Every structure is written in C-alpha cells, then in structure tokens.
Amino acid sequence: MSKNTPEQTKKPLWGWYKNHISAKMISSIVLLIVFTCTAFSITESQISNRLTSELEGQFDLRLASSIQSINTYLESIPENPSDIDSLNNEAYKKIKAELEDVLVTDTLENVYILSNSTGKEQLVILTGVDDDYGTEYAFSDEMKEAISSQKMTYSSIYKDEYGIHKSVFLPLKDSNGNPFGIAGIDIDASVIPATQTFIFWFTVIIVGAVIVIGVTVAFLLSRSLTRPINKLVRATKKVAEGDLTEEFVLKREDELGTLADSFNAMRGNLESLIHQISNSSTVFSTTAGNIHQASGEMGASSHQVALSMNSVNEGVSEVVVSINDSTSSIVEVNEELANVTNEVTGMQQMALEVSSYSQDGQVLVEKTLNQMNVIQQEMKQSQEAAVQLDTRSKEISDFITVITHIATQTNLLALNASIEAAHVGEHGKGFAVVAGEVKKLAEQSSNAAKSITELINSTQQDSQSVLTSIEQGSQAVEQGQEWINKMSDNFKIIFDGVSSFSSQIGHLKSSLDKTDRSFELITDSMQKISGITEEQSAGYQEVGAAIEEQSATIQEIAGAIRNLSQMADELQASVQYFKVS
Prior knowledge:
The protein folds into two domains: 14-219, PAS domain (Beta-Lactamase, 2-Layer Sandwich), CATH 3.30.450; 288-571, no CATH class. By secondary structure, the chain is α+β, with helices and mostly antiparallel strands. The chain contains seven helices and six strands, in the order αααββαββββααα. Strand 1 (110-115) and strand 2 form a beta hairpin. Strands 1, 2, 3, 4, 5 and 6 form a six-stranded antiparallel beta sheet that branches. Helix 2 runs antiparallel to helix 3 (90-105) and helix 2 (21-76) runs antiparallel to helix 5.
C-alpha cells in the first residue's frame, strides 16, 4: 500500500489555499495577530525585567540603609560583638535589643550576626530566636566573599524553606581589628517573583484572548465576504452554461451589493439581446430564402439574353475583321511614307542645326581671336609692370641700405654720447638718458630696416617669378592665336557645305509632304468606316458583357444570400443554447 510523500500532501494543501479567498483572509489576519501578540509579549517581557531590576534596586537601598544604621550603632557602643561568649552576656543582650528594634522599625525579615573567628561558622545573634548563640550556620558564597573582600556584599534573590529572600552582608572586626564575622539582614523578596509570575500569566491570557477573538473575527469576516462571492460565482457559472433565468439577489449596500446589481443588469441585458437575436435570425432566414429563389429565376433569364446577344455580336465581328484588314494595309503604307517624311524632316532639321552651329562656331572663333589679341596686349602691359616693380624694389632696397647705415651711425653717436655723459658725471645724467633713448630708437630703426630688407628681397624674388610666368603666358597666347586663325578657316568651309546640303533636303521634303497628305485622306476615310463598325461591335459586346456580369452578380448575390441563410440558421442554433424566460 503506497503512502503519500510530504511533497504530495503539501501540493493539495497549497492548491486549496490558492483557490480559497477565505483561507487567504484568515491566514493574513492570523499572521497579523501573531505578529502583534509577539510584539506585545516581547514588550511585556522587557517591562517585567525592568520592573524586577527597579524592585531589586529599591531592596538594595533598604538593605543598605538598615545595615548602615546597624554598623553605626556597633561603632558607637564600647561593646564589640566579638566579646559575646554566652546568652547571658550584657553585650549580647544590648546588641540584640538594638537589632530587634531595627527589625521592627525597618520592617525586616531577619537581622543577625555570624562568626567564624574560631574556625567554626556559627550564629552569634539572630533576631526572633531565643537560643541562638553558638548555633552552627554554614556560610554562603556571598558571606565568604564579604569577609574576604571586607566589603558590603548583596546576595541575589534566593529561595529556601522559609521563603524567598534578598540579603546584605557587612564584614565585622573584633577589638583588635581582626576579621570576626559578618552582620546580615534578610528582607522578604517574594513580591519580585510574584510580580513576574503575574505579568507572565497576564500576558498569556491577553495573548490567548486576542488570538481567539482575532481568529473568530477573521472567520466571521471572511465568511461574510466569501458567502455572497460564492453565490455570485454559482450564478456566473449558470450564465456561462447558458441559463439566464435565475436572478441573483443580494441585499447589501456595500461594494458586493453594487456588484450583484451590476450582475443582474448584465444578465437582463444579455437575455434581451438573446431574444432580439433569436427573433431577427428567424425573420432573416425566411427573407433570405425568398430572395434566393427570386435571384435564381432572374439568373436564368439573364443567361438566355446573353446567348442571343453573343450570336448577333459574332456576325458584326466578321464585318469588322474585313474592314480592319483593308484599313491595316493602307495604314501600313501611310506609316511607311510618314516614317520617310519624318526621317527627311529630321535630316533637314539636323542640317539647319549644323548650319546654325557652324555659324555660331565661326562667330565664337572670331570672338575668341579678338579676346586673344586683348589678352596678348594685357600680357605685354603686365610684363612691363613687372619690370617696373622689379626696378622699384631695387631702388627701395638702396634706400633701406642708406637707412640701415644711418641707424648704425646713430647708434654709435648715442654710445659716444653715453660715454661723454659718464665723463661729465652728475651733470650729464639727463644727457645720458636722452642718449639711451636715441640708442633705442636707432636699434628699432635698424631692426625695422632689416625686416623691410627681407621683405624687399622676397618681393624681388616674386617679381622675377611673375616676370617669367608672364613671358611664358605671352608665348602661349601667340601660339593659341595662330591655331584659332586656322580653326576659323575650317569653319568657313564647313558652313558652305552644310548650306548646300540643307537646300537639297528642302526640295525633297516638299515632294514627300504632298504624297503624305493624299494617303492621309484615304486613311481617314477607312478609319471612319472601321470605327463605326467597331463601335457597333463594341456596343453589342458591352451589352453581352453587361448581361453576363449581371448574371454573375445575381449568382454571387444568390450565393451570399445562401451563406447568410446558413449563418442565420447557425445563429438560431447558437441562441437555442441559452435558456431564457
């Protein structure tokens, strides 16, 4: 026998969860409640710990105050607890009486003095007990720590057969200053665990109540929402199955009520639509049958008319063929003559164009020749200007040489003036300044002269290059002028030959034009006869074609009506799927 695996069990549960909105709502609310309760429990735990800590602090303050008052008393009296050796000792009676008063005044549980000076751990004084001296009492770890550290020590909250306590221990010394034992106080601390227990059970009760109430509210809320939704789902399934007779009633004023009203309106509209479709499809199916029968009769009549028109058209077509053959022969002769005329016209036009082009070419050559003469004169003038520019550059270069010499002499004079001013001393300082400025101007003039000299040298080189280019251009212009003269003579010969050819072509063109006009008259007459016959034949063909088209159209309409009738029957069958009132 097979067993379900955890995965197989988990899948149905997860599927059930996904398919039920109530499960999702309840689980969401429960998770929120659990989260809230967890936060509340953590908060209560923190409060409990804080309250316990505060209570322990208050207990420590009470214990410290009481033990301090006992220590003050013991230090103020001449007796020392180490002097006690029996129950009848005066020191025993006096100290115990004081401890009893402190017990009552401070509302303590026990006040006692313990000793281990003789190697034996025993009671010296214990309030509320008469036969206390010498009773063995085992020291706790806190007691031993107080003696070893010689500091006041607090115990943690502990429980024994007498109850729940918290204690403080103060180390004591004998008259010689040696460790004697301890003074201790016990206080009832049962309120602390009682408070913790109360808080714990209070938290458990509150959390439990919140969980129970929350789950109950979640269940009721999900049920109040899912029940009408499930009713609406059942009603929707019936509509999907074609049953439109049931009305969905939900007396609510919230969104679910609005949804129910909208569903009922949709169901009513759908029911009305089904009624209309059913009635319309019935009427349409009947009408389509009648139209289909009438279109069949009309198609048969149109077919008979089309056969008659085809017979008439065949006879007219034979006459048209004969006329077309004769017309074609005349048209071919006329076309050949027209082609010859067109070719002669083209040759005449070409001759005229060649004559015009040769005349234009001759004029252009003459203009080019005149322009070459102008260019030759301009080249000569440019050559003369370049020669003058080179001459002027040389003259400027000579002037710059003189300026450079003057600047050098001025610089030497300024240097001599500076030396003389230095010899004069204090009185020649002004003259030395002037001499320095003159020297600067001389240097600037010298530098400017050098720059100008470089520019002039460069200009002279460019002038030589321009002069050489102009000479070469002048030679090229003379050569071109000679070639253009020869070209002008050739154009004159071509122009005379073209003029003679154009005149002969003109006479041939006149003869062909006369012949072409005669054939055009014959061709027009034959074409008119052929056109009239063809128009009659085309008319018969158009009538026949129109009748055939009408017959085909009627057949198409009949087919379409037949298809529409089938669609109406199918629509009627589809409407039968729905159940309406």
